[in-house]
Design a protein that fits this description.
Order of helices and strands: HHEEEHHH
Helix content: over 70%
Radius of gyration: 25 Å
Number of helices: 5
Shape: elongated
Oligomer: single chain
Structural class: mainly alpha
């Protein structure tokens, strides 16, 4: 009798283990599918963005020009605030030894669009995506202004270093910053609300 009970218990344990393994395998498969889906959507949006950006820039040239001028003005404002003699004329930011022209790529717009593409591709509700856009886009613009101030100062003080900082350092830095802001959105907005709902239940 005892032997039968032991066998019954063992069979129950084995059944629970098998169910747990099956559940774990299903969750892994679901997770892999979600990752693959995200990658396809994100890459598709990036391709569309990359190919259409030049045409959109032409179509919305007045608005883009306005953003360039605003970015130049804001950059000049902060340079003067730091006590660095700076003049701004349209899209040109001039310091005693160096001047830059703010073009479309200097506005941070492309980085904002990449961030939006990553958010759209991620499986979350539109409300959370709108919150992410409302918080992430201004943050990325502020970081871009910091970048503009930084490279202008570098150009003024060390012109030979400008190309490296502009083309290499800040390109990599902005990619890492976009990823960081995106991950922050997932953790603080998407997962935070899911955890709150789970606790409430």
């Amino acid at each position: 009798m005892k032997q039968k009970k032991k066998k019954s218990r063992q069979a129950g344990k084995d059944a629970r283990k098998q169910k747990g393994r099956a559940r774990s395998a299903k969750e892994k498969l679901r997770s892999h599918k979600a990752i693959i889906k995200f990658c396809f959507i994100f890459l598709g949006l990036l391709i569309i963005l990359t190919t259409s950006f030049p045409f959109l820039s032409d179509a919305f040239n007045p608005q883009l020009t306005w953003l360039m001028v605003v970015t130049a003005d804001v950059t000049g404002f902060f340079l003067n605030l730091l006590g660095l003699s700076t003049r701004v004329s349209g899209r040109i930011v001039s310091m005693p030894n160096f001047a830059i022209e703010v073009v479309g790529e200097c506005t941070g717009l492309y980085e904002m669009l990449i961030f939006l593409a990553a958010m759209i591709a991620y499986p979350a509700g539109w409300k959370k995506k709108l919150i992410g856009a409302a918080l992430g886009i201004p943050l990325l613009y502020v970081i871009n202004v910091v970048r503009m101030v930084f490279i202008t100062v570098v150009g003024n003080w060390s012109p030979q270093t400008f190309d490296f900082m502009h083309i290499y350092f800040w390109q990599v830095a902005m990619i890492l910053i976009i990823v960081s802001v995106w991950v922050l959105w997932i953790e603080k907005v998407v997962y935070h609300e899911r955890k709150a709902v789970g606790v409430h239940h």
